[in-house]
Amino acid sequence: MEDKLKIKISIADRVYPLTIHPNQEEGLRKAAKKIEATIKQFEQSYAVRDKQDVLAMCALQFAAQTEQKNIDKSSEMIEAEEKLKSLNDLLQQHLSS
């Protein structure tokens, strides 16, 4: 059984202590860096000073990216299924001849 790891993640000038599995550390640290970079970008681009507004904008952006990826994957799956069905139909035609 893996031991838990205690780490501290800093987001928007606040430190969050977390107890995680060691294999989660890299992903959490990368996510925190991405959030910090996005916060900095929003603060510079829109002169937003309220951290809550900036964090809400970050949350919206990340959620929108996730949803768009889900939509794209769904369309790719539908397209792949259609191609597989066409291939299957073609194979069936040749096998039955």
From TrEMBL:
GO terms for biological process: cell division. Keywords: Cell cycle, Cell division, Coiled coil. Residues 25-97 form a coiled coil. Pfam families: ZapA. It comes from the Bacteria. Transmembrane segments: none annotated. The keyword Zinc does not apply. This is Cell division protein ZapA.
